[in-house]
């Protein structure tokens, strides 16, 4: 069921004519959010056909939303502004989401790793956390996907430039030592 303005109007009309319904709605209003949540959970369970979309319905709805997003510049601006505002207001939640989706760890695992490394880069010892895009970043093996530790951006990119190859890194170390 998609929301339509007439549904809201029908609800308001019913509230005006049905005192019991109006009292029930008022009791579940924002003033008692827990009662409202409990009511809505029960309502969703007892009326699943109103809220479950088939895969075809979901795809049609998403296609329409994508088309509107592509065609409507104002909608794009509003969506981006809302996303930025949410990310700014929920920085830890966003970081947790990124860690979970890219590395399969949560923020507490990340904090534990940082504490285990004494709050410093595992290679060079850099520990200034004022620029979170520079330090700490998660270093992982691209072949196995296994997390190796937390590094500063320089060390992480250095490993990447040397293709995570111990042989190349050793040759680089010999080169630097001999050409000091």
Can you describe this structure?
The protein is mostly helical. The chain has 3 domains: 5-50, no CATH class; 55-89; 105-179, His-Me finger endonuclease fold, CATH 3.40.1800.10. Helix content is 64%, strand content 5%. It has a two-stranded antiparallel sheet. Strand 1 (137-140) and strand 2 (147-151) form a beta hairpin. It is elongated, with a radius of gyration of 27 Å. The mean pLDDT is 86.
Which ranges are low-confidence, i.e. pLDDT below 50, for 5 or more consecutive residues? none
Query: What characterizes the major β-sheet?
Result: 2 strands, antiparallel
- SSE order: HHHHHHHEEHH
The CATH homologous superfamily of the largest domain: His-Me finger endonucleases
Structural class: mainly alpha
Strand order of the largest sheet: 1-2
Short description:
This protein has 180 residues and is mostly helical.
Helix-strand layout with pairing:
Layout: H1 5-17, H2 19-27, H3 33-46, H4 55-71, H5 73-89, H6 91-103, H7 107-116, E1 137-140, E2 147-151, H8 153-161, H9 166-179
Keyword list:
single chain, mainly alpha, 180 residues, His-Me finger endonuclease fold, 3 domains, 9 helices, two-stranded antiparallel sheet
